[in-house]
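Try this one yourself first.
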């Protein structure tokens, strides 16, 4: 008999995280590193938010996350999104989905903001133009 598996992805800026949830003992690893020793601590706490909200449901699921690109903060946000989406996909729980949205909408919906491209006539900035003088 095939085991139940849920694959989900999360993005934030340039970071992309792919999460796989399957039946297990509640182990979570990010890039083959257990979440308990993930650094920096702020990123670890941010990533653990969906696991804390899910409570006993998260204790029945092993989650492996592969994250690349971006900085540590955007990687944490992408991993957080992927974990939350994989938990909802694995459990098919409408109540869990409502709990995530009530806590923070960005647990299930990706933040689409990106860096604005550089404009010509500027000094490496997106908006500020070079000042001109007509006298």
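Now uncover the answer:
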């Amino acid at each position: 008999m095939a085991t139940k598996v849920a694959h989900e992805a999360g993005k934030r800026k340039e970071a992309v995280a792919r999460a796989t949830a399957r039946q297990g003992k509640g182990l979570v690893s990010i890039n083959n590193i257990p979440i308990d020793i993930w650094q920096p601590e702020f990123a670890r706490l941010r990533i653990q938010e969906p696991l804390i909200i899910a409570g006993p449901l998260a204790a029945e699921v092993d989650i492996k996350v592969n994250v690349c690109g971006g900085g540590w903060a955007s990687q944490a946000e992408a991993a957080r999104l992927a974990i939350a989406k994989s938990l909802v996909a694995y459990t098919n729980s409408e109540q869990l989905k409502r709990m995530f949205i009530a806590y923070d909408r960005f647990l299930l919906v990706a933040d689409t903001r990106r860096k604005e491209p550089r404009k010509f006539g500027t000094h490496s900035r997106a908006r500020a133009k070079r000042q001109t003088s007509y006298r």
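Discussion: The chain has one domain: 5-107. The chain has a mean pLDDT of 91.
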